[in-house]
């Protein structure tokens, strides 16, 4: 089996305040490319769509451009930037740092439910 798709022609695009997510659905993989504009913050841009206090999506990702700060429910914080590979458990807030968009790729499979109203 071989399956190839281009993120330039996503299966779905989800727009939310100050950003958007492009999703490609494949056999055994849901892949997402997220673009977060300066001023984006999960708790301000996606919380009402998700209907939860914090982001409850598990992320396995890679930052292409820009910077993002992530705060876990327990208060732990870290910043990710270009070239960083990250794993973030459910129960977090995140926001763009600086005045450049943050572009991140997500291979978690759970990204299929991100910024999608139930």
UniProtKB/TrEMBL annotation:
CDD domains: cupin_DUF861. It comes from the Bacteria. InterPro entries: Cupin_2, RmlC-like_jellyroll, RmlC_Cupin_sf. Residues 59-106 form the Cupin type-2 domain. Pfam families: Cupin_2. SUPFAM superfamilies: RmlC-like cupins. Coiled coil: none annotated. This is Cupin domain-containing protein. It comes from Actinomadura physcomitrii.
